[in-house]
Write a structure and sequence with these properties.
Blueprint lengths: L2 E3 L6 E3 L2 E3 L14 H16 L4 E3 L8 H6 L2 H4 L8 E6 L1 E2 L11 E2 L3 H15 L4 E6 L8 H13 L3 E7 L3 H8 L6 E7 L6 H7 L15 H7 L3 E5 L17 H17 L3 H10 L6 E4 L4 H8 L8 H12 L5
Helix pairs in contact: 4-5, 9-10, 9-12, 10-11
Bound molecules: NADP nicotinamide-adenine-dinucleotide phosphate (NAP).
Length: 326
């Protein structure tokens, strides 16, 4: 798997990353079972065999169990920690926590950021995160407080680099005004059925845009400022790779048919086409593949071997938006 130097860091990251959201399986307080532990080790091993060295977490995934179960790999593969890049996120809080009646909310307060990272380090059984992202923009953000928390985590050696997720350029600018560390990543939803970041760039000044979008300029902002974009849900949670939609959906069916046809023409998996669509973008976007299935992880990794032409990229973009470009 090809690597790239993540701009603004000394990290040599693989072009494709593994997302660990579903690795801990259930989003409740039940403890991890043996099957989940065994399956996590197989998933991580498969990713490593495919050359993937970048793993994406969040404090909330499976209520902490995804980070916890990941740590079982250290027993299996001693010395691995020095060879991989671990990223986690903080800032989302569940309802009824800590008190009954508390709403689901975002929390970029100093105390929450610090305690969230300490929790991630404890569950991951490691002394540092390579990257920490703020998960979703908190309308009540006080950037001075975020800056203090980042300083503390950086000085204590607990976090090496920082980034954000689901943030617009303007929201990043607000943080940057106060932070003393650069923001090097912005993780956003992007796939052929959710091409909104791309769409925003081509529908400016259209009277009747296909979709009414916000976040215009986010992609360009990140490119200008050397912030690496990461794509979450690159397979649209399976809708682009053969998982049946819950209801009849012509757009999904047509898009998947076009992906399969292209995969057959190129003699690769549909997963490879879907991931290659993201890799083809010149912003050097890093797809965060969320599979726990070994065959599917291998199928996604095949994308590293192909490059779509401009025409192929637009064919898929057009299929996913359900209309030709204006
Ligand atoms: N920053 C954010 O706000 C945010 C939000 C969501 C996710 N993320 C990150 O992005 C990563 C990827 O997200 P994601 O999991 O939503 O995206 P994804 O990679 O688009 O989808 C992976 C999911 O689709 C399933 N799938 C794929 N093809 C399938 C098929 N043919 N039949 C049945 N199931 C199929 C996989 O199941 P198998 O496991 O069986 O392969 C897995 O559950 C996460 O792990 C997380 O790290 C970030």
């Amino acid at each position: 798997m090809k690597k790239f130097k993540l701009p603004g860091t000394d990290l040599e990251a693989t072009r494709i990353a593994l997302g660990c959201m579903t690795m801990g399986r259930t989003w409740n307080n039940e403890p991890l079972d043996e099957d989940t532990k065994k399956s996590a080790v197989v998933t991580i091993r498969t990713a490593l065999e495919e050359g993937i060295n970048f793993f994406d977490h969040a404090d909330i995934y499976a209520r902490g169990k995804s980070e916890e179960v990941f740590s079982f790999i250290w027993q299996e593969e001693p010395g691995l920690r020095e060879k991989i890049i671990l990223q986690s996120k903080c800032g989302i809080r569940f309802m009824n926590e800590p008190r009954q009646g508390d709403p689901q909310r975002y929390d970029f307060s100093y105390d929450h950021i610090i305690s969230s990272v300490e929790g991630s380090l404890r569950r991951l059984k490691t002394d540092r995160l390579d990257l920490l992202l703020l998960h979703r923009p908190d309308p009540l953000v006080e950037p001075e407080e975020v800056a203090e928390a980042f300083d503390k985590l950086y000085q204590d050696g607990k976090v090496r680099y920082f980034g954000v997720s689901n943030h617009t350029g303007m929201q990043i600018d607000l943080l940057k005004k106060y932070l003393r560390q650069p923001l090097v990543v912005n993780q956003m939803e992007l796939n052929i059925l959710h091409p909104d970041l791309v769409e925003a760039g081509i529908t400016t000044n259209q009277r009747k845009p296909l979709h009414q979008l916000r976040g215009e300029g986010t992609m360009e902002y990140c490119r200008i400022h050397g912030i690496t974009m990461q794509a979450w849900s690159p397979m649209a949670k399976g809708l682009l790779t053969g998982k049946p939609a819950l209801e009849d959906n012509e757009l999904v069916e047509n898009t998947y048919r076009r992906i399969r046809e292209m995969a057959e023409e190129k003699n690769v998996s549909p997963e490879a086409i879907v991931i290659a669509w993201i890799l083809r973008h010149p912003a050097k976007i890093q797809p965060i593949v969320g599979s726990t299935n070994s065959a599917r992880i291998r199928a996604c990794a095949e994308a590293d071997q192909i490059e779509l032409s401009r025409e192929e990229w637009y064919t898929l973009f057009t299929a996913g938006r359900g209309a030709m470009v204006p």
